């Protein structure tokens, strides 16, 4: 800066930094920037507290406030409130948040909270992430806003999120169950002779490109892991599955 910085009082600086050198540096930087237009830069307790309160998102980036704001942003989208979503997005932008961090969270949310209720959500979120990498600030705010509003106003489903968690829990419980013989790869004559691949039904050789057969290990046959969400699209998926699997999985 080429200017003298005078610290008249340091109690507030030490209190807000809590002994964290990074936070102390951030606090001093914010206060100094806020005083650049003044004739001299004299840091006082009052100036520190006023500046930190006005710029808490920038000061606390990476701290508790940082995670509180992103949490509010994600929960607003999950709760289908585009107004709150855009507000918290603006808070992050004003606080100097990394746009790539925001875009990554939108990609995760699109799959976890919208899922197959609207599969296009993941496509848009991924396109948003790519665009942010190409464009950055300030125009990136428009892309993030479009994506946040789209996700907030999309129907919601966490059915696939629950499905993989159920599957992982089942694997943890049951271990490495053997692959049914008819599903095994049979690259050699010996493997074919001992039954590998035998009685496998090639779906495309049957009407409707579907053949009723078991694809799970015998010990957990008929176990339903994916339960379609209660939304228009997944209700159609449920009917489709019911039409093919009948009562096997209880759809």
Quickly describe the structure:
The chain has 251 residues and is mainly alpha-helical. The chain has twelve helices and two strands.
Characterise this structure.
This protein is mostly helical. The protein has 3 domains: 5-54, Helicase, Ruva Protein, domain 3; 64-152, Zinc Finger, Delta Prime, domain 3 (Up-down Bundle), CATH 1.20.272.10; 175-245, no CATH class. The chain contains 12 helices and 2 strands. It has helices at residues 11-17, 21-34, 45-54, 56-59, 64-78, 82-94, 99-114, 120-135, 140-152, 159-174, 189-193, 232-245, and strands at 5-7, 41-43. Helix 5 packs antiparallel against helix 6 (82-94) and helix 5 runs parallel beside helix 7. The longest helix is centred in the middle third of the chain and has 16 residues, at 99-114. The radius of gyration is 28 Å and the shape is elongated. The N and C termini lie far apart (68 Å).
Major β-sheet profile: 2 strands, parallel
End-to-end C-alpha gap: 68 Å
Q: Are there runs of 5+ residues with pLDDT below 50, and where?
A: none
Q: If you compute it from the alpha carbons, what radius of gyration comes out, rounded to the nearest whole angstrom?
A: 28 Å
Please state the second-level CATH architecture of the largest domain: Up-down Bundle
Spatial order of strands in the largest sheet: 1-2
* Class per helix and strand makeup: mainly alpha
